[in-house]
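F.,

This is the one I mentioned.
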């Protein structure tokens, strides 16, 4: 595949997604407000928004673009998957310090759907890690090249509660979240685990290139690890919770609780706090169109009650700014409902 044609096509898709993110989103919001009885979106339910917008030509165009821009990004003629599969040299040095588990039984919820419309998922092809890494650069189009800023800001937020020494990053993938944690806490031992062999392989390679020597990449199911009790003082995840069915989510929280030392903290960055019915309607539609079957159940559940049930205390669920210049309250462009979900394991007796 011609690299110039590939880059041009991907650039066009990103520009089209920016148009969808801003101009179309604003027009759709304005159409809803114009037809809403109170002239305001803040007091609306998802059902009220659906009654107004589901048959709207503009909404159908908005939804079609969302679905097919993502499809073309990954699987079209100039998609990320064919580009990487046709260029085996992109795999580069295959040596990696990642600890793989060929016998790992991947769960059905993970293999049964091409999440994000990533063909074959993140596990079935050796180039999947490279495809995911390239695709992540345009997951949040409003950030442009500042996508990395999101994870640095998360690591800075984590640092406000102390200096952890033993960190577990669940679902760390190729290291987009683990790397900033490693850099922010250079004296800590950091373990990054993920179900995807291609992702942890790439993560270890990238960490070596960046001289992040305090990270250990392992292929492992976050719901059932081989670490001993109280092995960590910080357990994190980024964009993992919304990819788990309810039972698996509960198992992940159970495992995080077991792994934390008394007084340890678990902090997750995901999509949860949605301020009004219009944005919730858009978010639920995104989940369907982007092959994210567990995104809506997460957004609908009472996470605070669930964490309390699991034994956690000091629970904090707060909106998160993915960039300094983002106005969380201003609803003039599509964005994920970034939310920090944090809790502590009760401290032991003095």
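My design for it:
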């Amino acid at each position: 595949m011609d690299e110039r044609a590939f880059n041009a096509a991907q650039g066009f898709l990103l520009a089209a997604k920016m148009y969808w993110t801003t101009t179309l989103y604003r027009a759709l919001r304005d159409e809803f407000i114009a037809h809403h009885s109170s002239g305001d979106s803040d007091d609306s339910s998802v059902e009220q928004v659906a009654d107004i917008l589901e048959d709207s030509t503009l909404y159908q165009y908005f939804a079609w673009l969302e679905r097919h821009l993502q499809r073309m990004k990954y699987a079209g003629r100039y998609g990320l998957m064919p580009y990487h599969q046709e260029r085996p040299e992109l795999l580069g040095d295959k040596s990696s310090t990642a600890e793989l588990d060929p016998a790992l039984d991947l769960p059905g919820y993970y293999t049964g759907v091409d999440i994000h419309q990533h063909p074959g998922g993140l596990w079935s092809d050796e180039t999947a890690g490279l495809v995911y890494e390239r695709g992540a650069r345009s997951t949040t189009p409003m950030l442009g090249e500042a996508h990395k800023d999101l994870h640095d800001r998360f690591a800075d937020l984590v640092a406000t509660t102390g200096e952890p020494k033993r960190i577990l990053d669940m679902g760390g993938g190729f290291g987009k979240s683990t790397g900033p944690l490693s850099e922010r806490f250079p004296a800590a031992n950091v373990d990054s685990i993920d179900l995807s062999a291609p992702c942890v392989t790439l993560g270890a390679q990238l960490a070596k290139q960046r001289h992040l020597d305090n990270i250990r990449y392992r292929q492992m199911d976050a719901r059932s690890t081989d670490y001993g009790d109280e092995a960590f003082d910080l357990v994190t995840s980024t964009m993992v919770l919304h990819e788990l069915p309810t039972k698996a989510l509960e198992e992940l929280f159970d495992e995080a609780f077991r792994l934390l030392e008394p007084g340890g903290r678990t902090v997750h960055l995901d999509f949860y706090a949605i301020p009004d019915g219009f944005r919730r309607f858009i978010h639920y539609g995104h989940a369907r169109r982007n092959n994210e079957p567990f995104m809506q159940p997460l957004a609908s559940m009472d996470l605070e009650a669930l964490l309390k049930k699991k034994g956690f205390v000091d629970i904090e669920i707060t909106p998160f700014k993915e960039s300094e210049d983002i106005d969380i309250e201003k609803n003039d462009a599509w964005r994920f409902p970034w939310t920090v979900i944090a809790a502590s394991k009760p401290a032991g007796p003095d």
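The CA atoms of residues 220 and 319 lie 29 Å apart.

Talk soon.
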